[in-house]
Specification:
Blueprint (H helix, E strand, L loop, with lengths): L6 E3 L11 H13 L2 H8 L3 H15 L4 E4 L2 E4 L1 H26 L5 E6 L3 H6 L3 H7 L4 E6 L13 E5 L8 E14 L1 H7 L4 H6 L3 E4 L6 H7 L11 E2 L2 H9 L4 E5 L4 H6 L3 E2 L7 E10 L7 H20 L2
Parallel strand pairs: 4-5, 4-6, 8-9, 8-10
Antiparallel strand pairs: 1-7, 2-3, 6-12, 7-10, 7-11, 7-12
Helix pairs in contact: 1-2, 1-3, 2-3
């Protein structure tokens, strides 16, 4: 049973065991400058002091960050990977510090989500959030790949699935139920037919990225499979729009179709026993962000909006 609205933290640490900041600065400078001497000059230290800080970091991590070759330091594989995270963290600290010191910091909330979720569910509700929170500026980034919180300015992300994402606070928002949907005039032509005959009489639309495909749905509902004769789309919203236009039956998300279902431009082909739960939409963010006011307000609003969607379909 999904515990909606509860905040779970996966693999988060209660106390931080961080390397010394000076050692991190030494490592980043040496890797960037290419030599201990050049890095020492930048940091106004002696080469021996800088080398000592690097040794402390390597002892702390238990790995060699550089290979010593002919009096040169060459990043090891572990060092190259570590450098990416350290430079990203320093970049974020620098950007945040610049914004604060220049007085340009704002209450912009950056939300990352999937391309279908943004127009399919979030965008139609943004006006409500903006009216309730006029002091928070929303910025939406949409892409199919999970965001890296340590390399971007993202505050929160809305993800799809039931995964326990390591190191992140996870708030379950709402289940995603998949069901066959079509235009009301299409259903009127086949409503008197048995289940399989309804589907056989209308082209079946294929959503290539849908979490549940027709073949799986047929198998789980004990219906002999039928050929897919309708158009194919790589985005769920296009499949829903095609179904609204009477081009066939789409096996798609009830969450994304909620507005069309309420307006009556789409209707379920069958009763709820033919639905399938695919996964859940969840809100995730680093635990350290959890008490930031703009995030707590967005989280509370998002849970209320998701609750309305859940209630709309019983």
């Amino acid at each position: 049973m999904i515990d909606f609205g509860q905040i779970h933290e996966y693999n988060s640490v209660m106390s931080r065991r961080l390397p010394p900041l000076r050692s991190l600065q030494a490592f980043e400078a040496i890797a960037r400058k290419g030599t201990v001497i050049a890095a020492a000059e930048e940091l106004s230290l002696t080469p021996s002091a800088l080398s000592h800080r690097l040794r402390r970091l390597e002892e702390h991590l238990g790995v060699a960050l550089f290979r010593r070759s002919n009096r040169r330091l060459v990043l090891s594989d572990a060092g190259r990977e570590y450098l990416q995270y350290i430079q990203s963290a320093f970049d974020r600290i620098e950007r945040s510090s610049d914004r604060l010191s220049s007085g340009t910091a704002s209450d912009t909330l950056t939300v990352h989500c999937a391309p279908s979720f943004a127009p399919g569910w979030l965008l139609p509700r943004m006006g409500e959030f903006m009216a309730e929170n006029p002091d928070i500026e929303l910025r939406i980034h949409a892409s199919p790949s999970p965001v890296d919180f340590f390399r971007t300015d993202t505050d929160v992300e809305i993800r799809y699935g039931h995964s326990d994402w390591a190191g992140l606070s996870v708030v379950q928002l709402m289940e995603d139920r998949i069901q066959p949907l079509c235009a009301p005039e299409v259903l009127a032509q086949v409503v008197e037919l048995p289940a399989r005959e309804r589907l056989a009489a209308v082209p079946l639309i294929l959503s290539e990225r849908a979490p549940i495909q027709w073949a799986e749905w047929f198998a789980l509902k004990n219906i002999a499979p039928l050929p897919i004769t309708g158009p194919r789309f790589d985005r769920g919203l296009l499949s829903l729009q095609a179904a609204e236009l009477g081009l066939g039956i789409a096996l798609e998300s009830r969450v994304f179709a909620e507005r069309s279902l309420r307006q009556g431009t789409l209707v379920p082909v069958f009763d709820a026993s033919y639905d399938m739960v695919a996964a859940a939409h969840t809100l995730v963010y680093p635990p350290a962000f959890g008490e930031v006011q703009k995030i707590t307000r967005f989280r509370a609003w998002l849970l209320r909006a998701a609750g309305k969607t859940e209630a709309a379909f019983g």
